[in-house]
Amino acid sequence: CIPYVEKTCFTQQTEKCHDVYEKNCTSVIDEYEERECFDVTELICQLVENIQYEMVEETYTVQRCTRVTDRVCDTVYDLSVSTKDDFQCIDLEHQYCWDEEKIVKDKTCVFSVDFDCGKHKNKDGKGSVKCEKVPTKKCYDTPRKVKEETCKPRNSRYCEKFTNEFPFPEEKQNCHTEPMKKCELETRSRPKKAKKYVYHKDCKPVSRKVCDNCEKKKLKPVCDKVQRKVCSYKPEESCHEEKKQYCFKTEKIIIDKVCVGEKKEVFDESFSYV
Question: What share of the chain is helix, strand, coil (3-state, %, to 5)?
Answer without folding.
Answer: 0, 85, 15
